[in-house]
Amino acid sequence: MENINFFDRLTDSSLTLNKYETRLAEYIKENYKKISFLDMMDISKITSVDLEHITSYINKVGFSDYESFRNFIREFAMLELKSTDRFEFSLVNVNPKINNIKNLIINKEISNLNKMMENFDESVFYSIIEEIYKAPEIIIIGTRSSSVIAIYAEQMFNKLGKKATKIISDGTDSFNKFSLFDHDSIVISIAFARYPKETIRVTNFFKKNNFKIVSITDNIMSPLTPLSDITFTIPCESISITDFYATPFSVINIIIVLLSQLDKEGSISYLNKFETTAKDYGFYF
Fold this sequence. Notes:
By secondary structure, the chain is α/β, with parallel strands linked by helices.
């Protein structure tokens, strides 16, 4: 469904809505960004519409349950949410006590991980592993908050003996080594809603120079998708002003462990070299 057509359908006359369903539809159209943070009970209280009418309405617009309806709206609403929106909407249900916040945060991460488990595309992931395995170098792009993922990925790849370079900004100093990159290198670009423009600019630069690009993102409609040879989508839904990165870090860990198993002897050799260096230089206590 196109987004505009979807919003038109919410109040379409062919749905034969009763007065309660009409009230609900108008509320959703005007507050669709907020819906991502509200469950059925919240909607019922806010609109004074009984749960049975909410369920009936959700079925009329083509969804089997409220959760699938909310997830559909969330897909495009998250693209538009500013940090202030997330902060404001997340306060609707939250009792500001440590235990409540703890449960909210951890349950959201668990929810993202469960969704990733359910929808994990093994064939696409296998293609990514193949490209990384044969590549002479890995270039990892991640800016703004995703820079922490790029930093971690670079460290893990290098530890395993895979030459890796991170790019965490679109400043000119990031391209000082561009002429040294092997054109058979693989570029891994990481971005989630609201998709930093500098990540897109850097990725586009590599695309124009005919590098193979793998994107790790949260939606097939991500601006990374048309720039990528392979797109791997994972749920990365967040609440409030923070980012929820259990899923992308898990993806990096899965890649690293799989690569280590594909070349056990080489992995052990490089890990031994790493441990020797760590001991000689005194990396750890």
